[in-house]
Design a protein that fits this description.
Number of strands: 0
Strand content: under 5%
Distance between the termini: 88 Å
Number of helices: 6
Order of helices and strands: HHHHHH
Helix content: 40-55%
């Protein structure tokens, strides 16, 4: 143990990187083409712990589903989780530390699927030009998900892509435009 007390004498000039001298395969999990999945079903403290592991190269993803400690089914799909999503939701506990929590971080799988279904419906009902613009923006967002882009606070991505606040409004807007286009063609 050192006998010196107080702050360090020198500040690091740059942040430590876990794989600084090693070339990373971008197609492996955690690479640019296959980023880590979103951390869901845990409390804030556990989410920060898992993020720390990812940041400093200590994270080890699951290769196969693990057993749930409550129901003993092989249903745990995320690393460092001890309970499956069904048991954690039923007991209203964190899936990692099993502590009772009032607020669980992340969205549920069924919510994500419902949102994806609404998005696909909006894309299907949109004009070809809007559809391609939206698909390009979605693909761009997937490829740059690991790096955060700084955007002005008053500009939202939804406002840039289409003129509605939500997907439902955009779907209605595009349906109304298609109906008015059909009426214009009939009148001509």
């Amino acid at each position: 143990m050192s006998s010196s007390k107080g702050p360090p004498k020198h500040q690091n000039r740059y942040a430590w990187k876990p794989n600084a001298g090693r070339k990373i395969n971008e197609t492996e999990v955690g690479g640019r083409f296959r980023p880590f999945s979103e951390i869901t079903g845990v409390c804030l403290r556990c989410k920060e712990q898992i993020e720390w592991k990812r940041k400093y190269g200590k994270y080890k993803p699951l290769t196969e589903p693990a057993k749930c400690q409550r129901c003993s089914k092989r249903a745990v799909r995320q690393a460092y989780h001890n309970l499956c999503t069904a048991c954690a939701k039923e007991q209203n506990v964190c899936a990692k530390c099993s502590c009772k929590v009032d607020r669980i971080i992340g969205s549920d799988l069924s919510e994500v699927e419902a949102e994806q279904k609404k998005l696909e419906e909006a894309i299907k009902n949109a004009r070809e030009r809007d559809r391609r613009t939206l698909l390009r923006a979605m693909n761009k967002g997937k490829s740059h998900s690991s790096t955060s882009a700084k955007t002005p606070a008053n500009v939202t991505k939804a406002g840039d892509l289409f003129p509605a606040e939500s997907l439902e409004e955009y779907a209605e807007f595009s349906m109304d435009n298609e109906e008015s286009d059909d009426e214009d063609q009939i009148l001509e």
